[in-house]
Amino acid sequence: LYSFSKNYYMIKIYNIYIIISFIYNILYINYISSKGIELGLNNNNVLLPDININNIYKTFPRGNKFYIKPNNINKELIIYGSNLSSSLNNKPYTNIVRYMVNIPNRILYILVGLIISNGTISYASKKNLNNSIFQIKDYNIINYNYRGLLTEHNSKFIFKQSIDKFEYIWYIYNILSHYCLSLPVKTKSKIKNKIYYNIELVTMALPCFSLLRRLFYTGRVKTLPSNLYDLINYESLAHIIMSNASFHNKGITLHLHNFTIKELVMLINIFYIKFNFKSTLYKSNNKNVLYIDIISIKNLYYNIEPFIIPSMKYKFYKYI
Questions:
Q1: 189 CB-near residues (< 8 Å, 6+ apart)
Q2: pLDDT tens track, the chain, 320 positions
Q3: Which residue of 74, 97, 154, 316 has the fewest CB atoms within a 10 Å radius of its CB?
Q4: Cα dihedral 118→159→34→312 (10° resolution)
Q5: What is the C-alpha separation between 215 and 117, in angstroms, rounded?
């Protein structure tokens, strides 16, 4: 057992962390808003459907109804998705809370960029997958079961970066901390007898991530959804570049090896039609990649610059 003084010290450290994270999130939103960039907070079109359409207390009558303490004091109107606090060291969510949690557009756009690049989504359990939403190929079909639930499967989002990108993974953690019960951890992998150290972020297993799994996976294969045009914005592009791109004298290469040529051609068209910059498909080491030339980078950078973290901005300076 720890002594009282050690426990008290850890509580102080934790409280300081919560305060810093809270201030960081406020400054982040204010900074982006001052740039006139659309966060998705003011978008009336909520991109993900409701996970539950019935009275959640009746759906889970044995669930703990007092996990979230009632607040009968504050009566302010809160913009959806603007008040997501950190869940660090909280107790695991009850089923009632799990089905109350969804992903607002502001965070969804970021997750889309991360999933297209290096992020993955895995099932918490593979039980009864044959009768799940993952078998419905048409994203526009929304079928709720007899309990009023869109899915009864939980999935978790996993994002890994090399240890030299710790600042970036910490930046992502601060954005997704509402969905995480623990901090990012250091991991080790061995490839061709060489050891690599990484930082890995893993969220809670929640139904809302199952909705993303349905969008971006066909079976076990990562794919691009047909409605990607509506799910991606400049902030998504910034995260695709920060987490996945390699920089060289002639431009930027996006290593999107998971996707087919047909999917990459669709992505090229989205880049050109929605964001007005050109990209080219070619092979590198026998793998399909997308190349963005210097002219396109100059046109793109003004719009993604507010979302680029300071430690990565220097990579763009030779292009602008």
A1: 195, 196, 198
A2: 444 444 455 555 555 655 555 555 555 545 444 444 443 333 457 788 888 888 988 999 988 888 887 778 888 888 878 888 888 888 889 999 999 999 999 999 999 999 999 999 998 887 777 767 776 666 667 788 888 888 888 999 999 999 888 999 999 999 999 999 999 999 888 887 888 889 999 999 999 999 999 999 988 899 999 899 999 999 999 999 999 888 877 788 999 988 999 999 999 999 999 999 999 998 888 888 999 988 898 889 989 999 999 888 877 877 66
A3: 74
A4: -60
A5: 15
The three-class DSSP label of residue 246 is strand
Q: Which helix (H) or strand (E) element contains residue 160?
A: strand 155-162
CB proximity list for 276: less than 8 A, separation 6 or greater: 299
- Residue 180 vs residues 86, 93, 279: alpha-carbon distances, Å: 8, 11, 35
Length of the chain: 320
> How many CB atoms are located within 10 Å of the residue 240 CB?
24
Closest by alpha carbon to 149, among 233, 54, 273?
Answer: 54
Secondary structure (DSSP) of 119-131? -EEEES--TTGGG
Euclidean distance between CA atoms 256 and 206, whole angstroms = 26
Q: Are 114 and 96 in contact (CB under 8 A)?
A: no
Q: Which segments of 122-191 does DSSP mark as H helices, in order?
A: 166-176
Q: What is the DSSP letter of 214?
A: H
From CA 6, how far away is CA 9, in angstroms rounded?
Answer: 5
Please tell me the number of Cα atoms within 13 Å of 160 on its side-chain side. Answer: 12
3-class SS at 220? Answer: coil
